[in-house]
UniProtKB/TrEMBL annotation:
It comes from the Eukaryota. The keyword Transmembrane applies. Keywords: Membrane, Transmembrane, Transmembrane helix. This is LEA_2 domain-containing protein. The chain crosses the membrane at residues 12-37.
Length: 212
């Protein structure tokens, strides 16, 4: 009889402990949601600013599947916030030809730390050796479109990035998966040399938004 009473008491204690842990978990979840809503980066204007400073290409020839082509870009990564620090972990940058869903080339994005109200100019180079040499496959239809536009003297590209970003505020930190987009990059192209440069002066702002 005493054994059964002890066993019943132990079961009650276990159920009580599980109940308390469940309540604690719910409280922590609610607290996390509240802290994110009140103090998280998505309650402010996007702290991360991304601008394309330069874009040029060299040695582009559609006869060799673009294997010798090289695209040189420079981006300004800036933190416009006075509260959050930003840490961008290593991810990819992708180069597309306009109106195409398949990438032309990829390049790694090295880790970047931005303190409050700080900025950094970063060079990103797209070529056959980037991304450990594993570049996207380029189909004949894309090569034909590039060849046709190149003969007319203008090529059109867009850039996108796949970034894992941490916004840090004191001991608190929030991770977001961001996909900035830099579209409508019109390039003056000289088919005889395979070289080209961005049309127009000044920097180009890229769209950086929080995931919905």
């Amino acid at each position: 009889m005493g054994y059964l009473a002890q066993k019943g008491c132990s079961s009650v204690l276990q159920l009580g402990l599980i109940f308390l842990l469940a309540i604690l978990g719910v409280c922590m979840l609610v607290a996390g949601v509240f802290m994110t809503y009140k103090y998280g980066p998505n309650s402010h204007e996007q702290p991360l600013v991304l601008k394309l400073h330069s874009f040029s290409l060299s040695n582009l020839s559609v006869s060799n599947s673009l294997s010798t082509a090289s695209w040189d870009t420079s981006f300004l990564f800036a933190n416009q916030d006075s509260t959050f620090e930003i840490v961008i972990e290593r991810y990819e940058s992708l180069l597309f030809y306009i109106n195409q869903s398949d990438a032309l080339s990829c390049a790694p994005v090295e880790p970047i730390h931005l303190g409050t109200k700080r900025q950094k100019l970063v060079q990103i180079k797209f070529n056959s050796t980037a991304c450990a040499g594993e570049q996207p496959y380029i189909g004949d239809h894309m090569l034909e479109e590039i060849r046709r536009d190149g003969e007319e003297g203008t090529l059109n590209f867009k850039l996108s990035m796949d970034l894992l970003v941490m916004y840090q505020r004191g001991l608190l930190g929030w991770h977001y998966h961001l996909k900035p987009d830099c579209g409508d990059l019109h390039v003056k192209f000289v088919a005889a040399t395979g070289n080209g440069g961005l049309i127009g002066d000044g920097t180009k702002a890229c769209l950086v938004s929080f995931p919905k």
